[in-house]
Each structure stands twice: as C-alpha cells, then as structure tokens.
Design goal:
heterodimer; A: alpha+beta; 4-stranded antiparallel beta sheet; B: Butyryl-Coa Dehydrogenase, subunit A, domain 1; 10 strands; binds flavin-adenine dinucleotide; flavoprotein (chain A)
Chain lengths: 392, 379
C-alpha cells in the first residue's frame, strides 16, 4: 500500500471514530457553525467533541506545520483529508477568518514569535478575528483609506472608522489596515493586530437585505495600540508602512475562498431542483442544464487552478478571475434556485423554508460580487495585469 | 492527475504550436486553398507533413504503428489547429475514425491504419442523417446479403466525405430507427459502387457531403467491431470527437481572443487606445475568464476519457457545450471590437467566426450537449 493509501485508510478510520453523526449533517443555520473565540459556546456536545478531536489532531488547520497547531500534512494528504471529510459530509470543525485570511499572511510574513503565538491561538480556536479593511470612503479604492495611527514611540494612537467589518461585534481581535504615513499612498499603510476590547473600540451592527446582521461599523476613538506584544511579537505584520503588500497577499486568499475554487459552491443543481419541484418546464430545464454545464466547467477550472498554484504555473492575478467567475456563477445559481422554488421560495419565516433560507441565501449571494473586491474591480485587474490592456 | 500539461505534453504543445504557426498558418493554408477554390478544402501536402511529425497516429496504439498517446495529446494538436484555423482531416481521421478503427479487427486495422499514420489516407465519418446531430436515431440500413451487407440510405454533414479514402458509416442492421441495439459500424472504401457524394462548400470553406448509399455492396470484413453491437463503439468515437472538437474550439476561441486583445492595444480612437475604454476592458476580461474555464473543462474531459472514467461522457458534453458558448462569445466580441475592419474579408477575425459556426454544429451544439448533461445527471 502506498503511503497515501494508508493515510487514506487511517483517515477514514479516524473520522469514523471521531466525527459524530450530528456533525455529518449539512449546516442549516449559523448556530451549526463553530467560530471559536473567548466567548464561544457550543451548540451541543457533538459540536464540542468534533471540534476538540480535530484540534488535538491538528485538523482545524491540517496543512499548517505541527509547531503552529496544524497537522503538518502535505498538499496531497490534505487533499485526501478534504475528500474523506466531504465523503461523509463532515462539517468544518472550526470556521474562522484567522484560518482563512490572517493565518496564511502570518505564515508568509510573520516573525517566528508571531507564528508561535497567533497561529497556535487560531488553530486552537481561542481567538476570533475580524478584518478591518474597508472604510466608508474607501471600498474599491482601498488604498485611499484614512484611519490614522499617530506614532507615539512605543505605541500608536488610532482614530478612524471601518465599515462592513464582518462579525466585529463577536470578534476578539482585529487585523486592521491603518495609515501611518500621510505622504505616501501605498507605502504609508501598516497592517496592525489589536484587541477589540481595547479602550476606544466600538461597533454598531449593519442590517443586510437578507435580514441578518453579521456586519458592523467599527469605530476607533483614540485607541492605543502598542508596537509590540513581547519579544519577537510585533503588533504589526511585515514592516511598518509596508502593510499594503500584506493586505494584497491576503486579498488573494480571500478571493480564492469567496470564489469557491475549492469546490464549495460549484455543485450542479439540475437534478436537485427536479427532485424538489417535480416536473420541470422545458425552458427551466434548459436553463438548469446550461447552468450545470457552467458549474461543472468551473469546477474543472477550480481544480486546474489549484493544481497550477501548487507548481507556480498560475498567473498571480488568476484569483481575480476565479473570484469574478465563481461569484457571478453563484449568484446565477441562487436565481435559479429561487425560480425553481416558486412561491415557496418567497416565504420569509416559514418552517417549510427553515425560516426563509432560500430567499435569504439568494439575497446574501448578491454581496458575493461586492465583498472582497467587486466584479468590476476584478475585471479591471484582469484587463490590466493579465491582458495588459493600456491605461490607468 | 493534475490539470495541466506535464513536461512531455508541454513539449508536444511547443512543437505543435511552432509547426501549425508556420506550416498551418492562415495565409499559407486556409486562405491559400480557399482562394483557389480547392475541391478538398485542405492541402494533402500538409497532411503528409502531419504524418512526418507523428501527429496522425497519436491515438493509434503502438502495436499498430501509432504513438499510443491519449486525448490530451490529440487535444494539444487540435488546439493549435483551431488557433491557426488550419484545415486538415485530423479530427475526422486521426480522432474519430482512428477511435473506431482501434476497436476493429486486426484485418481492418491492417488495411487502414498504415495509410493514416503516413498521412496518405483521409477518413471521414458518416453519422448524421439530418441538419442536426441526432445519433440516437439512425435509419440508414445495412441488410444481410450473401456473405456481406447491402447499404441503403443517406448521410448528411459528412466532413471531407468526397476526399476520403474510407468512410466510417453507422447503419442499422436490425431493429427500428431509435433503438439502442442493432447498429453496426462499417468501413466503406472510397471506390464502393453505388455510393455518391453531393459535395458542398461550408461557411468556413471546408467541404462536406450529402452522401447516398444506393445498395452499396459490402463484404463481411467491412464491419468494425461486432454486428448489431456498434452503439458502444459509436459512443466512444463520438465522445472522442466531441472532446477533440471542443479542444479545437478552445483554439479558435483563444486565437480570436488574442487577435482582439492585440487590436485593443493598437487601435486608437478619440486620442486613446481603444483598450483604455473600460467598456471594452471588462468585456475582454470577461471573455478571458470564460476561455480559461472552457479550457479547464476540456482538459478535464480529456483526462477522464484517457482514464476510462465513467464520468467521461458527462464531461465530454460539458466541454463541448461550454466551448460552444465560449468560442461563440469570443468570435462575436472579436468582430465587434474590431469595428468595421472586422467585417472585411481581408482581415482574419471573420474567419474565426466562420470556423466556430461550423465547429459548433459538428457532433452536437451547445443545446444538444446541455440536454445530454441533464440526461446523464438524471433530470
Ligand atoms: C457582505 C459584505 C461583507 C464584507 N465584509 C468585509 C469585511 O469583513 N472586512 C472589510 O474590511 N470589508 C468587508 N466588506 C467590504 C467590501 O470589501 C467592500 O464593500 C467592497 O470592496 C466594495 O467597496 P464599496 O462597498 O465601498 O463600493 P464602491 O467602491 O463605492 O463601489 C461602488 C460601485 O462602483 C464600482 N466601481 C468602483 N470603482 C470602480 C472602477 N475603478 N471601475 C469600475 N467600477 C468601479 C464598484 O464595482 C461598485 O459596483 C464587505 C462587504 C459586504 C457587502
Ligand atoms: C458594412 C459597413 C458599411 C459601412 N458603410 C459606411 C458608409 O456608407 N459610409 C461611411 O462613411 N462609413 C461606413 N461604414 C464605416 C462605419 O461607420 C465604421 O466602421 C464605424 O463607425 C466604426 O468605426 P471603425 O470601423 O473605425 O471602428 P473603431 O472606431 O476603430 O472601433 C473599434 C472598436 O472600438 C470600440 N470603440 C471605439 N471608441 C470607443 C469608445 N470611446 N468607448 C468604447 N468603445 C469604443 C468600437 O465600438 C469598436 O468595438 C461602414 C462600415 C461597415 C462595416
């Protein structure tokens, strides 16, 4: 048996023994997702057991090195684990912006001290992070951000406002872009890490059209951010004033994630819809089939993209293409689900729809082509960086 | 298997790209033959060069003198054919007919494969019996007669039918028109009596025929595979052809897109390069995204076919449908963004539009294949 095959059978046995049946059900609402953090509570014993088993095994972040709380799996092993988890429909044991976004940036830019401290905390689900990028006047044109950190030798005094900070009200810490030099647009931004419990940080929820509110406005009023949290643990990632490089790197990860390049939102829908809605009318069926063609082709693209990334063959701006195509596809998918659902899908609070899930999901997907960079901005990046079209 | 070309495949791609860019270029082949009203629609000299390069036998087993490679490799050649609009019988002969012949007896193989590998023989396939691809229904009949068969009926859209040394014909040996069983594939030689071709030039300046069989006498050894059990070989042949034509379509899409993007960088209006206008940038960027995705679908289908996966048919249809939509977009946007010059015969972009149209119809259009995706997915 090859190493990979024996890894697969070990993994299968481990999952069999450790993944409770309740954790093999599709995620139905927010309480089904475990986000960790200081104030985290578990929905039930199964969620707790599943999380703890994964944490102890390094499976909350399987591909991270062992010394930072991961399992040190090779890309091929990590793929096997993903496949085996998908095969039993296992829920992710821990969801977090720390895992998806900050972690990769720290692995790339962090000091050894930062990695030891923050990566381990993330892997163990101890600290819940949020992302402080966007500001009311700086969305697509992120680099125009105004939140300012005044240098006071051993600390900064930060003033300003962020917006669209997902789960800011539930987060323990924030990774945040702060202007530290007003004279240089690109080279005047520092990527800071600080505690949301610091004096002067406040949040206010933003209600979305889907009726839920994981989003916040975040205000900084004379927040004092120390420059260091101990030996080799600076409060900033990379260099002071060079946070834009970190931010861009991280956005690449964010875009990959939102694009569903991992196969997250590329599932076909024709067969599922025909089960739900009985006989399909021929035009609807044709629309679904055309969608499935696109979804299967996109899934192949996702696979190709990941294969190419591993060997450095992908254009560095490819995540923008994946983000653009994946999110537009996902919006179309939910339009079709709504159409196929008919009037039932319009119900906002019924049991039949688990509290209006189809409609709320549909509305939520409209943000896919806005959050993490709009489709228009993705197209700009493709035109300029990949096609090398002239201008601007 | 990772979804990109390995080193050997990348080398083949480079060779094919260089060869097709030089020998198969539009001016040297497509325009050259078209402007001379060539009755074959392609050059036999180039076809022999295909043989010298080893392209012709890519899908033929090594025991039979071929290279024993797969659909990924055939697709590499086809993508370059598409990009350069190189007219050749590669798709019908080296992909479709070769796939059928690989299922034939040693006798059938021995009769036809050496000529193919040398680039001396040209093969065509005769499947469709109407204006649209509907291989589920085959009315053409081959009745037993003595030791052999007597073939009667009519086939349409037989690409290279008039120039072919042999036609692979799907005919009914039992049952009724839309039966799954009862089909047989025959290798019908060029000089068979009572076979006639009505040749027509198509929009892309290739030549196809309406071919009639008016009691064509065939020996028993003209059968490819087994009598009455031809459906599975036919399906294998069609999947190979669909994935192959999708690969060629990706080449057409990329060729058109590259030309257009270049033009956007050169053409000036209102004191700017037109590529500076965001209205055009976004359409170009969208097109790029679609082409990349179509290409991924094609490679996936090729690999599944090579691996003998049971999902290969589904992915073959995904690839064919996705490419049809994408290449259609590429050529329409290409002509539009070229402005008036795109409407002129002198300029190549319109040639891409014409090739795309013919390729879309060949072996099923986007609607046919999306429908097949639905059927194979159980709805
Ligand atoms: C649900 C959701 C979650 C989010 N989560 C977070 C988060 O956790 N953390 C965080 O920091 N931010 C978050 N964001 C913010 C998100 O990144 C921004 O909304 C996004 O970058 C767009 O900025 P904007 O909303 O200011 O729109 P604007 O930049 O004002 O754009 C308005 C419109 O103009 C278009 N436009 C702008 N510039 C151009 C151009 N050059 N060419 C063509 N069109 C252009 C845009 O595409 C858009 O259609 C979230 C947003 C949403 C909706
Ligand atoms: C069949 C035919 C018949 C014609 N008949 C006549 C006639 O009888 N008399 C006559 O005088 N002319 C005639 N014309 C010329 C016609 O008016 C021009 O072709 C047309 O105005 C486009 O100009 P162009 O070809 O130079 O394209 P370009 O101006 O070079 O345009 C190329 C591309 O760039 C785009 N583009 C250009 N500027 C912008 C911008 N600011 N923003 C966004 N996109 C832009 C265009 O939309 C197009 O897609 C004819 C053309 C054709 C094809």
């Amino acid at each position: 048996m090859s190493d990979l095959e024996s890894f697969r059978s070990e993994t299968r046995a481990w999952l069999e023994a450790n993944c409770p049946a309740e954790m093999r059900e599709p995620v139905r609402d927010d309480a089904d997702v475990y986000w960790g953090g200081r104030n985290a509570t578990f929905k039930n014993d199964a969620q707790k057991a599943w999380f703890e088993a994964c944490r102890d095994k390094g499976y909350t972040v399987p591909a991270w090195p062992k010394e930072y709380g991961g399992a040190g799996l090779s890309p091929a092993e990590a793929k096997v684990l993903r496949e085996e988890m998908a095969a039993i429909g296992a829920r992710p044991p821990l969801s977090s912006f720390g895992i998806w976004m900050l972690g990769p940036a720290l692995l790339h830019f962090g000091t050894e001290g930062q990695k030891q401290r923050f990566l381990n905390e993330i892997a163990r689900g101890e600290i819940r992070w949020c992302q402080g990028y966007s500001e009311p006047g700086s969305g697509s044109d992120l680099v125009s951000l105004q939140t300012y950190g005044e240098d006071k030798d051993d600390h900064w005094v930060v003033n300003g406002q962020k917006v669209w900070t997902s789960y800011a009200d539930k987060a323990d810490w924030i990774f945040c872009l702060v202007r530290t030099d007003k004279n240089d647009k690109y080279r005047g931004i520092t990527f800071m890490l600080f505690d949301m419990a610091s004096e002067g940080v406040s949040t206010k929820p933003i209600l979305l059209i889907s009726g839920s509110s994981p989003f916040c406005e975040t205000f900084f009023d004379d927040v004092s951010v120390p420059k260091s949290y101990g030996e080799d643990v600076p409060a900033y990632v990379g260099e002071v004033n060079r946070g834009w490089d970190v931010a861009k790197y991280l956005l690449g990860h964010e875009r990959e994630m939102i694009s569903g390049a991992d196969g997250g939102n590329t599932a076909t829908i024709g067969a599922a819809m025909s089960r739900n809605a009985g006989e399909l009318d021929p035009i609807m069926r044709a629309e679904l089939a055309m969608f499935d063609v696109d979804a299967l082709a996109y899934a192949a693209m996702g696979e190709k993209f990941l294969d190419e990334i591993k060997v450095g063959k992908a254009h560095p701006a490819q995540p923008n293409m994946m983000k653009y195509a994946g999110t537009e596809l996902n919006k179309r998918r939910h339009e079709l689900i709504m159409s196929a659902g008919g009037s039932t899908a319009l119900e906002w609070e019924s049991e039949e729809t688990s509290g209006g899930k189809p409609a709320r999901n549909w509305l939520r997907t409209k943000a896919n082509s806005i959050e993490g960079g709009t489709s228009e901005v993705m197209l700009n990046v493709i035109s300029k960086r990949i096609l090398e079209l002239p201008g601007g | 298997m990772p979804l990109y070309h390995d080193d050997d495949q990348a080398m083949l791609a480079e060779t094919a790209s260089q060869f097709m860019g030089e020998e198969g270029a539009i001016a040297k082949q497509l325009r050259h033959w078209r402007d001379r009203d060539c009755k074959d629609g392609f050059g036999h000299g180039l076809w022999e060069q295909f043989g010298e390069m080893g392209f012709t036998g890519i899908l033929v087993g090594e025991d039979d003198g071929g290279l024993g490679m797969g659909h990924v490799e055939a697709g590499i050649v086809l993508e370059e054919i598409g990009r350069n609009l190189t007219p050749s019988p590669f798709l019908t002969s080296s992909v479709l007919a070769a796939t059928a012949l690989n299922h034939g007896s040693d006798d059938v193989k021995g009769r036809y494969l050496p000529g193919l590998i040398e680039g001396k023989s040209v093969f065509a396939v005769a499947i469709d019996e109407g204006a649209k691809h509907r291989p589920e229904t085959i009315a053409c009949k081959a009745e037993r007669s003595g030791n052999g068969f007597k073939l009667t009926g009519k086939k349409d859209f037989v690409v290279h039918g008039a120039s072919a040394d042999m036609l692979v014909v799907a005919a009914r040996t039992s049952g009724s028109d839309s039966d799954e069983d009862g089909l047989t594939l025959f290798a019908v030689p060029k000089d068979a009596a009572n076979m006639s071709h009505d040749a027509v030039r198509l929009v892309d300046s290739s030549i196809a025929t309406h071919t009639s069989f008016d009691g064509v006498e065939l020996d028993g050894d003209a059968v490819i595979g087994e009598v009455d059990n031809g459906r599975s070989i036919l399906n294998a042949m069609l999947d190979a052809g669909r994935v192959g034509s999708a690969a060629e379509g990706v080449g057409v899409a990329r060729g058109a897109m590259d030309m257009t993007v270049d033009y956007l960088k050169q053409r000036k209006q209102f004191g700017k390069h037109i590529g500076e206008f965001q209205a055009l940038q976004h359409r170009a960027a969208h097109l790029y995204s679609e082409v990349e995705i179509a290409r991924a679908a094609v490679i996936k289908a090729q690999q599944l076919l090579d691996g003998g996966s049971e999902r290969a048919s589904l992915m073959a249809s995904v690839a064919k449908a996705k490419v049809a939509k994408t290449a259609g977009l590429a050529v329409r946007e290409g002509v539009q963004m070229h402005g008036g010059i795109g409407m002129t015969d002198e300029y190549d972009i319109g040639l891409y539009m014409k090739r795309d149209r013919a390729l879309q119809e060949f072996l099923g259009d986007a609607y046919y294949h999306a429908n097949r995706v639905a059927e194979l997915s159980g709805y």
